[in-house]
Write a structure and sequence with these properties.
Elements: H1 26-33, H2 38-43, E1 60-63, H3 72-83, E2 94-98, H4 109-121, E3 126-130, E4 144-145, E5 158-162, E6 164-167, E7 181-185, E8 188-190, E9 193-195, E10 201-205, E11 208-209, E12 217-219, E13 225-229, E14 232-233, E15 237-238, E16 246-250, H5 260-263, E17 297-301, H6 308-312, E18 324-327, H7 337-343, E19 351-356, E20 383-388, H8 393-405, E21 411-418, E22 421-427
Parallel strand pairs: 1-2, 2-3, 3-5, 4-6, 5-7, 6-8, 7-10, 8-11, 9-12, 10-13, 11-14, 12-15, 13-16, 16-17, 17-18, 18-19, 19-20, 20-21
Antiparallel strand pairs: 21-22
Helix pairs in contact: 3-4
Length: about 425
């Protein structure tokens, strides 16, 4: 039986009316221009008469291609001409200044601050300011210091600052009533307090806190998430944060505060910043852990010599909502008494992760703790995970203690990391 091949009919291409850019409304063109670097957006003014002024009302400004400017003076001239003619009635959704290509910005200090405050007058909602990549690169060249005046905005909800020096009043965000997200990286924070009533998310990473050796108070009662990592100077004090859900605090190796005064409960001469806490807090109050006590997911990372957390354990608050907890070496001292002490204040804990870098050498004791492992009861603990370089006697001891303390434990797991790979030991 023969089969007749079917040939598909190919219809002639239909006529397509191509929509030219000139037929688009100004708002659409300006939205598209906002994705360009500012210099490229301005250069579109030569395309046609209609394009001459479109760039003055684009919703995004991105000054990022600093390599095209051969001097700070030319950069200043360009940004001034970019901002001053801008239509004040047009809303600026986002603005980014990324000047990390310049190593010399001393003559631009005044201009930078004016740029920031000018774009805030344009109702900017998202502002990003980036200078140097890290503090180490600025030892010979000082950081750009922004004016010691608070920011004023009823529209700014996200602010990112990188590589600048910030002083007292600048870090008072009380006049930024809708600020929700604040990220500060590689900055110098020369202040005794960071204030905000509206802030929901705060990240401070790689910064130097240096206000006269006093601890900086972070007062942000509406915070939902907090990240503190690899900062130097005196450990900041955390105010009340009743809505906090997640927090990660990594104090780093250059942020360690320990001395005889701390280790002996204040009975010796002091030589670290912790002494200044006595001026503002009662001696029997937890000044760091108290602010974290409402979190449901918490990471506390520090070296075994760090006393900041261990000192607070003498007056530890109850973590009544905490379900997931990650701890590092600092908690494995005094025959695990530090770890056991902390776990006594986590009644609803479900998941525990321990990061063991090395065997701790500290023998600091917790005065009056008297906590025996038999008294520890973790009714809801289901998962224990230990990450370590090698599975040693500490791992086995922790497994034994926690398996005896929990009636609902479902998984005990240890991950050993080495140059040969990952070794996983699962019990239960």
């Amino acid at each position: 039986m023969s089969h007749r091949g079917k040939t598909a009919k190919v219809s002639p291409p239909s006529r397509v009316d191509h929509l030219s850019a000139s037929a688009l409304p100004d708002s659409v063109l300006q939205h598209a221009l906002g994705f360009l670097e500012a210099r490229e957006a301005v250069r579109t003014c030569v395309l046609a008469r209609r394009w001459c002024h479109l760039w003055k009302s684009i919703p995004r400004l991105r000054v990022t291609d600093v390599d095209v400017f051969r001097s700070v003076e030319k950069l200043n001239e360009f940004v001034d001409r970019l901002l001053l003619p801008r239509d004040k009635s047009s809303v600026l959704d986002e603005c980014e200044f990324d000047l990390r290509g310049f190593l010399r910005l001393d003559v631009a200090i005044a201009s930078v601050d004016l740029w920031i405050r000018h774009v805030l007058m344009c109702h900017t909602q998202v502002l990003q300011v980036h200078f140097y990549t890290n503090l180490q690169t600025t030892q010979d060249q000082p950081l750009v210091t922004l004016a010691n005046q608070p920011l004023l905005s009823q529209h700014l909800w996200r602010l990112e600052l990188n590589g600048v020096s910030l002083e007292d009043s600048f870090l008072d965000f009380s006049s930024c009533s809708v600020l929700k997200d604040l990220k500060i990286t590689n900055c110098v924070l020369d202040t005794d307090k960071i204030l905000s009533r509206s802030l929901k998310h705060l990240s401070i990473m790689g910064c130097e806190l240096c206000w006269r050796l006093h601890p900086t108070l972070i007062s942000a009662q509406s915070l939902i998430s907090l990240q503190l990592a690899d900062n130097v100077g005196v450990t900041p004090i955390l105010g009340s944060m009743p809505f906090l859900e997640t927090a990660s605090v990594n104090l780093g190796h250059q942020n360690e505060e320990y001395c005889d005064f701390c280790d002996n409960g204040g009975s010796e001469d002091y030589d670290c910043g912790m002494v200044y806490l006595a001026d503002d807090f009662a001696p029997d109050v937890s000044v760091h852990l108290l602010g974290l006590s409402t979190a449901t997911c918490l990471e506390l990372i520090a070296s075994s010599k760090m006393v900041t957390f261990k000192r607070d354990l003498r007056y530890c608050p109850e973590f009544s909502k905490l379900k997931s907890l990650l701890l590092s070496d600092w908690c494995l001292v005094a025959d695990f008494q530090t770890l056991l002490c902390f776990l006594h204040y986590t009644p609803v804990l479900e998941k525990l992760i321990l990061q063991l870098c090395q065997k701790p050498k500290s023998d600091m004791e917790l005065d009056g703790s008297g906590l025996m492992e038999e008294s520890l009861t973790l009714k809801q603990l289901k998962i224990v995970e230990i990450k370590c370089q090698m599975i040693d006697e500490r791992v086995h001891s922790i497994f034994r203690i926690l398996s005896d303390s929990s009636i609902s434990l479902e998984k005990l797991m240890s991950k050993s990391f080495s140059k040969y790979g990952v070794t996983v030991m699962v019990l239960l």
